[in-house]
Amino acid sequence: MKKLAILLSTFILGCSLMACNDASGITEQTTEFMTESTQIDEMNSQQLPDQTENNEILSLATCTIKNYEYSEEYDKIIANVSYPSFSLQGEWQEKHLALNKILNTINAVKKTKQLEEYHSFLQQAKEDLSENPDSFYPYEFNESVLVRRADQNSLSLLFSGSSYAGGAHGDYYLWGENYEPSTGARIKLRSVVSDMEVLKKQVEEQLDHYWSDAGFYDDLDHLLADRFDSDNEDDLSWTIDYNGLTFYFNPYDIAPNASGIQIVTIPFTGNEDIFQEKYLNVPKEYGIQLTCVDPFFYDLDEDGEAEKISIYGEKNEYGYYVNHKICVNDEEYDFEMEGFSVEPTFIHKEDGGSYLYIQTLSDNDYRLLSIYRLGKGAKMAEKLETIGAGYESIIPEEEEGPYLQMALLDPKSFVLETPTDILSTRSGIKHYYMDENGLPLTDDPIYHMKEGITFTVKRDFDAELFDLESGSVGEQVKVGEGSKVVYYATDNVEYGFLLLEDDRIVRVKVNRSEWPITIKGVEIEDIFDGIVFAG
């Protein structure tokens, strides 16, 4: 079993570096990536830039791309596969060209490798289904990505994977990858920590404190010493967080499969002398994407000892989550919330406040965002509010590209997306920041359409010129039959804003107290050709 674990860890690491024989041309691209990776990894021995003055948070978007095969004969899914995609956004693509290139190549390699594994076990899955339809469980090979830290000193990604290809149980792993943003180089553990012996001792103490019932192998001391040896450093799974180093010991690494994954965090606080100073410099406020179930360690009450925080979602018989379960040490809190997913993000505020933003995907891709306060008052977890919005989705420039979702990494500046239905069903976005109570607050008076929709005017109508920046209303103008207008923005209450062909913006007031929606008593579909409502 230990051999299987070692092979699995090697494979996980290899997903980022391995050349794959594929007709898509990935081999050449991956070979180029491997050459560049070797070159830039050597730069770790040199002094890299240290953002000590203004360590800004990077902008990243991520998604998980899924595929599956379904058997109509047995009314069952035969196999499924998923792989992550992620990229820098906005100005950071230009500021960190080397890193952006590395991330794009990793995306391509992971996609190829995941699909290769998927097709390799698909035929076996079909055979197993036909032989054992009643006890068959779908084969899977899935992986997603979480952003653990993203600033100008380090980008730390956590890959969460699971696989099942028959047998008594599947495999589950967490694997960290860490990069230097200015060069794209992989960060070596020994370039972060000056004393590996002290670090190893700290890890042992944390394992004993939080995981004493894990049933560690008798040769735990040897296993840890071997992994922290310079020649075997790549066998360690770890991430650089904002509050310390987190290590992930996957099943069979140091304990049996039944014990799951052991996670320990070595905090910066109290251990400053063993860490390189640049990594101690973190933004004053930040967001960290969390997995479900796997614990996250953070000192909520600032007593010098980290709390063990876990987020669960309980499902009903239809696979629908019916609540959010938040556990802090031995305390457990249940909050009713329905949806198909549970996507938690931990938020740290400058005043020391800690929060959870949990996004839930519901029917018709409707997203809900639930906000919880942690570690304040009598309760360690308290629900503040649920709003009908979600993180901004990024529309691909290429038609076949994946839709990415912005990660909430900077509490001082983020975008939420909300369904609107004034002149059509469209997603509108606003810029937000977290207020002193941990809730999203916006100064934007209107929602801008993510995807403008063009209407052809079917009959003349009157509208008011409008300045979106100042909010001032201008003169009334007539918009003529046959002209083209773009549904541009809305207040999602009573006004729709239209972009005219001469680039002027007008607003129209709608009445939606009854269906159908009207403008001055005329149904909107009698005025505009191209109206689209969902449902």
Task: Give your account of this protein's structure.
The protein is α+β, with helices and mostly antiparallel strands and 535 residues long. Helix content is 19%, strand content 39%. It is built from 8 helices and 32 strands. The strands form 6 sheets. Strands 18, 21, 22, 23, 24, 25, 26, 27, 28, 29 and 32 form an 11-stranded antiparallel sheet that branches. A hairpin with a 4-residue loop joins strand 1 (60-71) and strand 2. The two termini are 51 Å apart. Mean pLDDT is 88; it is low at 1-52.
What are the SSEs and their pairings?
Blueprint: H1 2-14, H2 26-41, E1 60-71, E2 76-88, H3 92-95, H4 97-131, E3 139-150, E4 155-164, E5 171-179, H5 196-210, H6 220-227, E6 237-240, E7 244-249, E8 262-267, H7 277-280, E9 286-289, E10 296-298, E11 307-315, E12 321-328, E13 331-339, E14 343-348, E15 354-361, E16 367-374, E17 381-387, E18 390-391, E19 393-394, E20 404-406, E21 414-420, E22 426-434, E23 440-441, E24 447-457, E25 461-466, E26 473-479, E27 484-490, E28 495-499, E29 505-509, E30 518-519, E31 522-523, H8 524-527, E32 528-529
Parallel strand pairs: 2-3
Antiparallel strand pairs: 1-2, 1-20, 3-4, 4-5, 6-7, 7-8, 9-14, 10-11, 11-12, 12-13, 14-15, 15-16, 16-17, 18-21, 19-20, 21-22, 22-23, 22-24, 24-27, 24-32, 25-26, 25-29, 27-28, 28-29, 30-31
Helix pairs in contact: 2-4
